């Protein structure tokens, strides 16, 4: 019997080639897109989950109550790790870690190259599952001059990992470090990215401010005992900073420590008002919903086409019931047919995924592969196919198996309003989902375009930065290099900054000025800059820039309008602050200029008060260089030539500010691109079903159309007759989807401090697109039916 059912199913597929092709194509597209999304979700969920001690690893976070607000992040004092390990027996290992990327110049003989890495505590390799190819976890980072390097670095400089052990590498042409360990290249599913690690004591020696309990920046990670009570430990570490930082506490400032599970830190990285508030997990949830949407749209296609063509199968059902077939057997037969369709579609979907995966990886920045050797991959495929087949085949099976044999075999079969309404409801549901994706695509595109093109308050075009290193870090050589650059063709202006202008993150408190409330502690973003910054960035200023003509500028300051409003919150006149005394880090000076507010961080973050000081220590600064429009290539060649003349022991490396700014919105750009593709596919799949339904309806009403044409109906009238019912459904879908889309996208936009409004025309445009696409889909069959010769359709009457 089973073989007989398979034969019948296959014959139906062959007999109805057009409808079978529509069903298989719709299901395969839905399954292919869903499979790609599921692979991406799996990759996201696997990030940082490869560490054997994962459940025992935690980030120590800090929550700061500051300036009337609450902030939270991974920033902690640089000496916290050792203190935690000493005070709390629940903590087995603790390690500090620099959250910022250090680009350093490695030299071994005549091999010189830039490498990317961090500083980390001595317990690092005891905590994290990073295989060592040479050396041991105990000795990898056990001394100030110890160095751990990746396999890639070891092979580049020494040929192989074993040969690298015990050798010396000169870093930044200043100091030799000994290779105490070689670790395997970090896997792609690691959120930490580095090719070398230096001992934490070396970082402390380079940055004396890290010895202070009131200075934050580094990350702190701990590993607890398996039996540790995390809630109890969390409560015990909470007030710790108050003990060591008594000077600042109680003056409008408080700091608390808390724990976040390390495996959660990648997906749950955002904090608002001191509490965890999403992160990449929001995109995981979003694309999970999109995957389900696409599968549902494909399944609805199958349901609609199967029930619409039920007249063709009615006599078969009647005959089977007369000869003794029970409803459950018939239902099983039709579900089996749906599963056959689904597994055929799965084969097509796998082929699509195989060809699309490289482009998908390029778009998302992933390295996903089809792991056909893993049983979990096949379980996912089989589970998806079974679920899709059961959902797609459930209603057609129940509907067809419920037909009464007497009515069917009499030829008096008429479908009630319930079946018609159900089909219409499915069409509406399809277009509601499609409308949601269209609106989402338009809003995401507009917001991403807005953040990428908005005026930041400075001109980021033709602007690049180069790390100041080697001999150029001395003030005299820096000045010579700058003067020489300004003589080169294509160079407009040169300055320097401690951080890139698009990502200034360092902050401080304790800024004082006459009349300040002694109980308030306002947080200021801060950085050091060089002369000619305003000219180079093209900032607008009330007052003046730092200038070598004013020797006292080494103790003076520039502030932005946001800072001026906090300082002079009564008069609201920012320019009046020029010349006012101000003290930073117990260094008194005065305000020489008030800068018009500019964006120095992501547009996810509001513009905050910033104070700029004149930098005299050029170590870890960057040249900020503006080139003449259209002469960037010539300017780069000139810069590189001069660099090699004056700083030959360091490779020339530069970055464009505009490129770095775009990276701030990489996730949003990826979401926007994926939304475009998925919205198109959702509409396409929906239209496949609409095309099939309109063809079926035209076929069912062939004689009616013939009679109408004989009685004088025009071609336009017939087209309107066949189209209006479908267009009504699309209009209903638009009405239902619009408020849902507004709510969903309004929630997404809350993640941006600066965002566009959701305007009414977006829904009008999306609705017109949906109507237009639906009308084009239906019109082919409608026009074909309207142009048919009525003699042919009425010949049998």
Structure at a glance:
By secondary structure, this protein is of the alpha+beta class.
List keywords for this structure.
797 residues; alpha+beta; seven-stranded mixed β-sheet; 25 strands
Please state the oligomeric state of the protein chains shown.
single chain
Number of strands: 25
Class based on secondary structure composition and strand pairing: alpha+beta
* Count of DSSP H/I helices: 25
Poorly predicted runs of 5 or more residues: none
What is the gyration radius calculated from CA atoms?
34 Å
Tally the structural domains.
4
The main β sheet shows up as: 7 strands, mixed
Helix content: 40-55%
Inertia-based shape:
elongated
Description:
The protein has 797 residues and is α+β, with helices and mostly antiparallel strands. The chain has 4 domains: 1-47 and 284-415, no CATH class; 54-266, no CATH class; 432-444 and 663-797, no CATH class; 463-662, no CATH class. 50% of the residues lie in helices and 17% in strands. It has 25 helices and 25 strands. The strands form 5 sheets. Strands 17, 18, 19, 20, 21, 22 and 23 form a 7-stranded mixed sheet that branches. A 6-stranded mixed β-barrel has the order 4-5-10-7-9-8. Helix 2 (17-46) runs antiparallel to helix 21. The radius of gyration is 34 Å and the shape is elongated.
